[in-house]
Design a protein that fits this description.
mainly alpha, single chain, 100 residues
């Protein structure tokens, strides 16, 4: 499974993960995050690269890292955590690139 804009190194740095025993699940989460960001923005990867001046927008990379971290850290659909802060932060980074 090839990632389009997130990298395993960035994911591990962001989530403070050492070792490689969970690389497969991290890549799966990252692929899901990338696909969802592209769908949410209703844009292609190439459109977003153009909007980013030739590189994929850092804001969307951050939004993707946030999604992967939430998926990795909260693997159960029911947990006693407050995810509203994550949702706000994610929206802050992703919204400027969405077709409204």
């Amino acid at each position: 499974m090839k990632l389009q804009f997130l990298t395993l190194d960035y994911i591990k740095q962001h989530s403070r993960i050492c070792g490689d025993c969970e690389d497969e699940i991290l890549v799966l989460y990252a692929k899901g995050a990338e696909n969802n960001l592209l769908r949410l923005c209703d844009r292609t990867y190439d459109e977003l690269v153009t909007m980013g001046g030739g590189t994929f927008p850092e804001e969307l990379m951050i939004a993707g890292l946030l999604l992967v971290d939430v998926l990795y850290s909260h693997r159960s659909p029911q947990e006693a955590v407050k995810l509203s802060d994550v949702a706000y932060t994610f929206e802050f980074y992703a919204k400027p690139f969405m077709k409204l």
